[in-house]
Amino acid sequence: MTCELMTPTRRAVLGASGALFAWAFIPRFAHAAGGRDPRFITIILRGALDGLTAVPPVGDPDYQALRQAIAMTTSGPHAALPLDSFFALHPSMPNFNGLYRAGQAVVVHASATPYRDRSHFDGQDVLESGYETPGRVDSGWLNRMLEGLPKGGKVSPGSSAIRGLSVGANAPLVIRGKAPVLGWSPSNLQPVSEDLPPRLMDLYSHTDPLFAKILAEGISAGKIAAGLDVKARGGPGDPTGMEQMARGAARLLAQDDGPRVAALAFEGWDTHAGEVDRLNKLLVGLDNALAAFQQELGPSWKDTAIVVATEFGRTAQVNGTEGTDHGTGTTAFLAGGAIKGGRVIADWPGLKQAQLRDGRDLAATTDLRAVIKGIAVDLLGASPVVLTRDVFPGSDHVLPMKGLIV
Fold this sequence. Notes:
Layout: E1 39-45, H1 51-54, H2 63-67, E2 81-82, E3 88-89, H3 94-101, E4 105-112, H4 120-129, H5 141-148, E5 164-167, E6 181-184, H6 196-207, H7 209-225, H8 239-253, E7 261-266, H9 275-297, E8 304-310, E9 330-335, E10 343-345, E11 366-367, H10 368-380, H11 384-391
Parallel strand pairs: 1-7, 1-8, 4-10, 4-11, 5-6, 5-7
Antiparallel strand pairs: 2-3, 4-9, 8-9
């Protein structure tokens, strides 16, 4: 299958400097009522993750024959990590496995958005916009959720706008919208001289006070997220780049007056050929990114929830190049100290030919919107009415999933 090329022009570009400037002046956060000061992070995996490899259903009697050369086992070289008697975890994710054992991670298997076709562009639009059909790219569900959170609630902005954080050179659609968002990306440029920032501040404080205020916020964000390994640069489709993005984001989220909601996008999950080696590398990057969030958030980790989602899954059967093509059902990951973890959530559809969607795909039995709604309600205090009306229009039949938050 030939894949569409994904270019940055389809999403707003904020810039690629070490500290991107805020869209608006960012006020100080008030702590949440009841002592909880939550963080909510969304990681988009662009390209469609193969959930049957990331979390293989080794207990399904049809799994081995269906997956053939890329089937995984819980014994021998490169053995998968058992999660329970039915599901296992890809061996490239030991950090997630540790969180799972500690009760801070969940797998949501056989899950999907409402999208049922096979276009990356359209699938990503549905995943990130929150609408039931593609083509609505004016705003993303995470930004609309921010905009609709109650004033004085669990994530309170005080007297001004709630803050979000966009990580990467291109703002993910999921966090684009009316709510003010801070943008930051690891810099691949040589650092400027130490006297340049104060000189610019002095200049603009006299000629453009508003821009001087925004510039100060950008400089501050860059300093907070600084200290990454400048000798090892990588992009959003590289393990090093994924970890850098997560580590810098976590440093900003950990600040008392920093953002509380963030969005990242990792590229390259389209595994049409040579899936084993490619997915090994990518899952290492995702796993290290989750570990970086845990390390850098420190005490804030206990009130953190991370959702890792992708636009759709892969075909259940392997193609002729030891890869998989565009499918339907996939796997979502949840992690964080606020997650009630140590379990796989799945209404397992089965892998027999008659149970596969269109005879080729893992059927989707869990709506990803139910997962996000549940976290938004129980962690952030979001209104179910607002979530259905404004955040995920058309999802009246999708109830918030309960019991995801400690």
